[in-house]
Amino acid sequence: MPPPKDVVKIAIQMVGAIPQLIELQQTKPLASVLKDVCDAWSLPNAERYALQYADGRQTYITESNRRDIKNGSILRLTTSPDQEAERLYSGIQSKNVDVKTDSLKKLASLSQDVTFAQEFINLNGLKQIYSIVEEGNDTGEMLAHTLKAFTELMEHDFVSWENLSTVFIKKIVSYVNMNAVDASIQQLSLSILENMVPTNRLLFELVKKEVTLDRLLTHLQTTNAQLQLKAMALLIALLLSATDAERRDMMDYLREKNIRQFIHKNIIHSSEPLGDEMAHYLYVLQSVSLNLCEHRMKTSMDPYSQDQRDLLQSLRQTAFESESEAPAGSFSTERRRSLCAKEFRKLGFMNNSNPAEDFRRAPPGLLALDNMVYFSRNTPNAYSRFVLENSSREDRHECPFARSSIQLTLILCEILHIGEPCSETAQAFYPMFFGQDHFFEELFCICIQLVNKTWKEMRATQEDFDKVMQVVREQITRTLSLKPTSLELFKTRVNALNYSEILKLRQTERLHQEETLAVPVLELREKLKPELLELIRQQRLLHLCEGTLFRKISSRRRQDKLWYCRLSPNHKVLHYGDVEEGVQSPPIESLPEKIPVADMKMLLVGKECPHTKEKSSGKQNKDVLELAFSIVHDVEEYCLNFIAPTRYEFCLWTDGLNVLLGKEMTSERTQTDLDVLLSMELKLRLLDLENISIPDKPPPIPKPPSNLNFCYDFSHAEQ
Q1: Cα–Cα distance measured from residue 525 to residue 517, given in angstroms and rounded to the nearest whole number
Q2: What values do phi and psi take at 23, rounded to 5?
Q3: Which domains does the chain have, with CATH numbers?
Q4: CA-wise closest residue to 162 among 187, 190, 197
Q5: pLDDT, tens digit, for every residue of 13-63?
Q6: What is the enclosing helix (H) or strand (E) of 406?
Q7: In this predicted structure, what is the pLDDT of residue 557?
Q8: CA nearest to 60, candidates 46, 49, 47, 71
Q9: DSSP H helical segments within 497-518, as ranges?
Q10: Closest C-alpha among 432, 428, 374 to residue 405
């Protein structure tokens, strides 16, 4: 007979004593349980002791987390957190260097536990840590333990970062700016500053002033990958906390220092694989840089602005320079106005008498004008060829440069998500972005020439404008999905994907769709589905058995600590536990925590998850909600919370957990995989029917013959 839900069988260890095997009643007060355990070992003063897990993070057991204890758990009787906090509080004040160092090392380890951290902070322990940093001159092991302990204590959010003194902050900054200091101290210092920057405007200004961009670039150029990562993290935190003007200045300075070229050569194309966190920071850097275009994109043209009018006139003058060489006095004002209107019409403006009106729509606003001017000034030959070539065509067949440029700029803004906030988890950046200065403008120059090429291939007229731009959008998105490493490669591939290739791709997709919609084929699909769904279920469970590395996300920083979760080979237990950075696939025995599949009650996703409700602030990013899921086990209030590294992992894990719960797989990935498998299977089955039309109804069965005596007698033939 299984034990009641409020009773768990556990072992309790103590150094120098025989372990106790007890049945822990969850309804019994923890103080009473501790007294019984201490009495069994004849220990007085039970209030001086506490229970903690013997393995893993060795968390203290409290009334709030005792329900997490599972059958078979091994606990250890140890000093209570308040007693341990007092002992370490005294130890870190010791005059003996060895005692002080050992106490700080122990403090750094125990501070990960929220119960201990609360007790230590209540003793005003942080003040003592401040004084060790502010007054000490040590830059060795003792300081590393001190900074580690400080970081862990601050992670629990009991104390605001705004309470830090200027002296303390400047001391941390000095470790970042020092040359002769251990890399681990610089990593911890950069991490502390990264956490500090987003919390307060004054802290941002102080860090920005004290830690120069040059210093951060020096750390970025080191060979130590972790130091490089922390420097990038602080740089991103500064960029995200800056005002638009400050961000623009910072990006301009970084451009002068050739940061893109360095990232392209030494980080993206490094011999070491790019980690998830660095990939995210590169995505944010790309997003921040592209979003500098947002202001111009959302600003309409002011017809009374002389600077903007000069830019507009420069387009006309560059294109029709020879025609405009006549002296100013040779034409009347009316004739000059008529000539300008004619030239603006040749440039492809909708409103040739007042071309400024074409830039009133925002987006793309003035960004379209900037792109056109950049194209005319940096590739004048291509610009002149585009305009003059279309000027000589029939009116209906000319490709309007201005109208095409305005629409193309809008398409590029949508594809590159300009003006959208940075995702908290995305890692999708374009390697070619870091290999090219003026990326957006150079991309426009390639794509506007693509518009003209596609226009000619389609033999388009003015009525086909929207169709042409739709084809161009498809050409750009299909090429970008291949992740070209340079703009030259992008240019080669996008030009190779001409209109006839797009038509072939569309026709293939359409034929496939028509082929799969025939009634007999649909019936065959339904017949094949159960077998293929079972194949997908097995793949999902196999993926869960291989396991995945997850990151805990805290309220202040994007990513916190790493943990790993995997399913046992017999599909009966989920094993999980914290792991160190760099661990790829830890063995199942090294994961101390476990949840029996039989105890799993429900799967929650998105807004239903408790950890998304806790963080449901205005800053909460929607993509975190799209990656969040939780397993409810035992009693409903106890959940194991996940935030998947990618949408792909989210789909595989939620599908796998639904299979374990005996439910249908509901992710969009299931449908995609099913469609791919069905498509492959159908193609194999219908291989012999190529170019044969499949009727909607089966052919009629012929009537039976009137005489069945049609057996041929071979014996007569032989004679």
Answers
A1: 10
A2: -100, 110
A3: 7-79 (3.10.20.90), 83-268 (1.25.10.10), 298-320+335-510 (no CATH), 530-671 (2.30.29.30)
A4: 197
A5: 998 889 999 998 888 999 999 999 999 999 999 999 999 988 777 789 998
A6: helix 401-415
A7: 46
A8: 49
A9: 499-516
A10: 374
